[in-house]
Write a structure and sequence with these properties.
Blueprint: E1 14-18, H1 22-33, E2 37-41, H2 47-53, E3 59-61, E4 75-78, H3 83-95, E5 99-102, E6 115-119, E7 122-126, H4 133-146, H5 151-168, H6 172-184, H7 186-192, H8 196-209, E8 216-221, H9 232-238, E9 243-246, H10 252-255, E10 263-266, H11 278-290, E11 294-299, H12 309-318, E12 322-326, H13 331-339, E13 351-356, H14 368-371, E14 376-381, H15 387-396, E15 404-409, E16 417-422, H16 426-431, E17 439-443, H17 450-453
Parallel strand pairs: 1-2, 1-4, 2-3, 4-5, 8-11, 8-12, 9-10, 9-11, 13-14
Antiparallel strand pairs: 6-7, 14-17, 15-16, 15-17
Helix pairs in contact: 1-2, 5-6, 5-8, 6-7, 7-8, 11-12
The structure holds S-adenosyl-L-homocysteine.
């Protein structure tokens, strides 16, 4: 982190703005919104500042800047078009440990201005650390459209009722659940639609009904790796959870999106090293939910595709624990899209089969005759170790030796790599390289489209056959 984001209280604090042109006026306006006590120093005061001088109650000092002018100020902004003055302002302020910003000169600043979404008391501030202000502004525009204007009013309602809620719900964890329900449920909707009194009444009613809130489990498909392939619902529930139970396929980027103070429990599983056996995971989820926690069970891809999600919810079902299942983008569709390999195609494949290539006692039990049929795409999960066997079996059951096949490493992430070949050539090609898990295998003539349709920049695309 190049800059540390903090929110500074400026009410009644003495702030100095050097310069009195249009840019100065914009900064003055911001400071005024925060209730600062503003002094403007400039040799000549121009129209933009003159026009706000009275309404904002600005003190104006008309002179050339000298270092002692910063004395007694908490924060200084230099917005002149004279580089020498700007430098002098910056060094004078820094000498006295006063926060200083020089407009458009990050190297002279001790703090920088973020792009702001103001839904006071809710404020979102975005910064690119000076690297790409336009990007920060674009992001702000997105947030503007995402955060309803009523958010400020919602926060005000929460503030008004906070004390009362605290006296009625003593446990902090229970209180948080209550507030999350209020702030994104029907009460919030009433505020957003301008029915403030009704919203307050609804909140009080809920408070009366609030006895004990039980825990629940969210079985969440976290997708194949790229964090922005999560669904909105997955993200929302991840940010509500008290505990997150995750395994190896869930990328660090995605874990970063979990509520910051949520407890995080890692439960494996590497191919050979199951950090926790499946039965223990099932029992753990049930235990946590029974203790009143909201548990986000994060699984790579989709929980119902080679994810043993069914087993986990079966235990919950038996024990009467509330849960919901959130689908995720499975590795097959993630990897296929990012490798430019359509899973079906009118000229190539009318069907697509997902199978697991997991070896059981050194063998793979699959219906090879069916998999060797033409005009279909076969996607093999967990197929790296058995790759040679898979290719050999398919050829033995009638697939042509030159049938295209691709191995995709860490699909959709920045480490994605696609290795293509044929049933006859790929195993040797793959074993000649260092391949990192997880990997997915796609077999069928659709793979030949990779050269034409690939759009994602892999770390090293090897498409030679
Ligand atoms: N439920 C998951 C699959 C779990 S099985 C899903 O729907 O995707 C684990 C296997 O998924 C891995 O061995 C690998 O074959 C595949 N896999 C998961 N994520 C992957 C990724 N980003 N790139 C390539 N393969 C992946």
């Amino acid at each position: 982190m190049q800059y540390f984001p903090i929110f500074v209280k400026l009410q009644g604090q003495a702030c100095l703005v050097v310069g009195a042109g249009e840019i100065a006026a914009r900064k003055i306006d911001l400071l005024a919104r925060a209730g600062a006590d503003i002094t403007v120093l400039a040799k000549t005061v121009k129209a933009p500042v003159l026009s706000i001088q009275t309404t904002l109650g600005l003190k104006v000092v008309q002179k050339n800047f000298t270092p002692s002018d910063v004395d007694g100020f908490k924060l200084v902004i230099s917005a002149t078009d004279n580089p020498a003055t700007n430098e002098l302002v910056a060094s004078s302020a820094k000498q006295q440990g006063i926060l200083v910003n020089v407009v458009d000169s990050p190297e002279l600043c001790s703090f920088i201005f973020p792009a702001i979404v103001d839904r006071s008391p809710i404020i979102a501030a975005i910064s690119s650390g000076g690297a790409a202000p336009v990007l920060a502004r674009l992001l702000r525009a997105k947030l503007e459209s995402l955060i309803p204007p009523g958010y400020g009013q919602l926060a005000q309602l929460a503030e008004k009722c906070r004390g009362l809620v605290k006296t009625r719900i003593h446990q902090p964890a229970q209180r948080r659940i209550f507030w999350e329900d209020i702030l994104q449920g029907s009460v919030a909707e009433s505020v957003f639609s301008g029915r403030l009194q009704q919203a307050e009444q609804q909140l009080l009613d809920k408070l009366d009904q609030n006895h004990k809130v039980g825990g629940e489990v969210y079985l969440i498909g976290a997708g194949p790796g790229a964090a922005d392939l999560l669904t909105f619902r997955a993200l929302r529930l991840m940010q509500q959870a008290d505990v997150v139970v995750y395994d190896r396929l869930v990328s660090p980027e995605i874990l970063d999106l979990v509520r910051r103070d949520a407890q995080k429990i890692y439960v494996g599983k590497q191919r050979q090293d199951h950090a926790l056996p499946q039965e223990d995971i099932n029992a753990l989820l049930a235990k946590l939910a029974k203790a009143g926690k909201r548990v986000a069970r994060l699984k790579g891809g989709d929980p119902f595709i080679f994810g043993r999600g069914g087993e986990e919810i079966e235990t919950l079902m038996q024990q009467g624990i509330a849960f919901q299942v959130v689908p995720g983008i499975t590795a097959a569709s993630g990897c296929a899209s990012y490798a430019g390999i359509p899973l079906t195609h009118r000229d190539h494949a009318q069907s697509c089969v997902f199978v697991t290539g997991h070896l059981k006692e050194g063998d793979i039990n699959l219906n090879w005759t069916q998999l060797a049929l033409p005009k279909q795409t076969v996607v093999v999960y967990m197929g790296l170790v058995g790759l040679e066997k898979i290719c050999a079996e398919l050829m033995a059951h009638g697939s042509p030796a030159d049938l295209p096949i691709a191995l995709i490493q860490q699909g959709t992430t920045r480490q994605q790599r696609v290795i293509t070949g044929t049933l006859a050539t790929l195993p040797a090609k793959v074993s000649a390289q260092e391949v990192k898990a997880p990997t997915l295998v796609i077999i069928g003539t659709v793979v030949s489209l990779h050269d034409k349709l690939r759009w994602f920049q892999d770390i090293a695309t090897d498409s030679g056959r």
